[in-house]
Amino acid sequence: MSMAQQAEPAVTTPPAPGPSKQKDGRTAQRPLALRLLARPEVGVFLGAVAVYIFFLVAAPPVRDGSSMANVLYQSSTIGIVTIPVALLMIGGEFDLSSGVAVITSALTASMLAYQLSMNVWVGVIAALLVSLAVGFFNGWMVVKTGLPSFLVTLGTFLILQGVNLAVTKLVTGNVATDNISDMDGFDQAKAIFASSFEVGGVNVKITIVYWLVFAAIATWVLLRTKYGNWIFAVGGNKDSARAVGVPVTFTKISLFMLVGVGAWFLGMHQLFSFNTVQSGEGVGIELIYISAAVIGGCLLTGGAGSAIGPVFGAFMFGMVQQGIVYAGWNPDWFKAFLGVMLLGAVLINLWVSRTATRR
């Protein structure tokens, strides 16, 4: 029998394998808990709940409705500026002059209206223009010179601090402005910037409403608009963002100007709440704004964060500041608590980030 006539051994063809049930690590969907942990605001929300529960136990007056209204009011005065500061940090920059800029806007409105005997709304509008100009200057200097925003805004901080004190003493002969409560337009401005209303017998400041509305608007801008995409892009890598057509210069300058708007708004609230302004105030408050944003999940390196996280960060600051008072503790412990909160938040954010991205 020839080789060609020999029967070849039967070969059994294995059945075609069915679809694999195993997924590539890159495409496997992570558990819901890890996906939630990846959100920057989740960690600070849990921290805010923990701080709230702690002071509920340690400071019984916190349980009263009026006390909680005071906590929310204190939080709102921090949060109104923290929101634009957080957007700026997501965009890769931060502003050390935001604290004294609040006082600059209030001093401008007060002195201009009083010294020139004009309607207070003239001072309010002039203060807005000054605040926008300060923000524009900071942004323009950062973009055009390439200097770190730390150095630029530190210089602006020192300039504004000196101008606030020197000009106020020169114009009024004192370190504080004159009382403007009897001037034209004061009542209307107070109704907008510093009014209050009752909810269930509890007096609630209007700044709480503004704070939450501003946070909602900022969240919508970040998540639903082209401008929000630009903010994340320039914060992540400005050169790559510029290469794909993102207007880096406009985005960064406008973010600094938004911080100016936030400082102006809070300055108007302080002016029409107390009728006068102390020119030496505002120093050190910028660190609270930045810390609240960091606690809220915004990275100092930019490109990551949200507007909701800083809301909880501001609430934690307000809760601690008022909670210490209601607990009857020495208020000197406030800064120590803030330091612990800041370090704790940074460590938690680091752990959450590593846990959420772990395969």
Q: For the largest sheet, list the strands in their spatial order.
A: 1-2
Give the low-pLDDT segments: 1-12, 18-28
Helix content: 55-70%
The largest sheet is: 2 strands, antiparallel
Structure description:
This protein is mainly α and 359 residues long. α2 (40-58) packs parallel to α13 and α5 runs antiparallel to α6. It is built from 14 helices and two strands. The protein starts with 31 loop residues before the first helix and ends with a helix. A hairpin with a 2-residue loop joins β1 and β2. A two-stranded antiparallel ribbon has the order 1-2. The model is unreliable at 1-12 and 18-28 (pLDDT under 50). The chain is 69% helix and 2% strand.
Topology at a glance:
Blueprint: H1 32-37, H2 40-58, H3 65-90, H4 98-115, H5 120-145, H6 149-172, H7 186-193, E1 196-199, E2 202-205, H8 206-224, H9 226-236, H10 238-243, H11 248-274, H12 285-295, H13 308-327, H14 333-357
Care to give the gist of this entry?
This protein is an all-alpha fold and 359 residues long.
Provide tags for this entry:
single chain; 359 residues; two-stranded antiparallel sheet; 2 strands; 69% helix; disordered N terminus
